[in-house]
Amino acid sequence: MSAALQVTAFGLALLSTLFLLLATCTDCWMVNADDSLEVSHKCRGLWRECVTNMQDGVRTCDQYDSILADHPVKIVVTRTLMITADLLAGLALATLVLGLDCITFFKEDPCVKLKMCYGAGVILCAGSILGLIGSVWYAVDVYVERAMLVSHNIFLGVHYDFGWSCWLGMAGSMGCFVASVLLTCCLY
Fold first, then answer.
1. CB 172 within 8 A of CB 18
2. Which of 78, 109, 130, 133 could form a disulfide with 85 if both were Cys (CB 3.0 to 4.6 A apart)?
3. pLDDT in tens, 19-47
4. Which CATH architecture has domain 3-27+72-186?
5. Where are the beta strands (DSSP E) in the chain?
């Protein structure tokens, strides 16, 4: 039972970590949802802003200025939290691989292997919380930005919704959290 639970948690953690990495690297955190002519599709991300022409499929991207330049707080905080979550999830995966029962590393001391799985669960939990905070922070800031424009009767003709990268970050964070619960609570 313990080995099956470990392998299940590892598979979920691996998939969720890939989701977190993909969300961090991709640039569709905020998408233009109010283009009534459907001439272009605009995505804003953590690293650049891309516009895809719907007629011919040409995609052009504008990279943001240097990483050290002044950026909006939502971009800086989300970048920091997502990169930290990625690093913690990767560390947890490496620790979990060494702690799996099917791996012969520390085979003579099962107590150490169990502690490694438990430690991986704790690290994974920390990474999942940071990733969830980063994803939700960005989403809430997009909502508040739009609400402020509407409350001041400023209509720009553009309405942004949460992009698939934002949803992928939330899904990856929740998957890492579920894997950490499996490792910390159900393994004993």
1. yes
2. 130
3. 999 999 988 888 875 555 567 778 888 88
4. Up-down Bundle (1.20)
5. 30-32, 40-44, 48-53, 59-63, 160-162
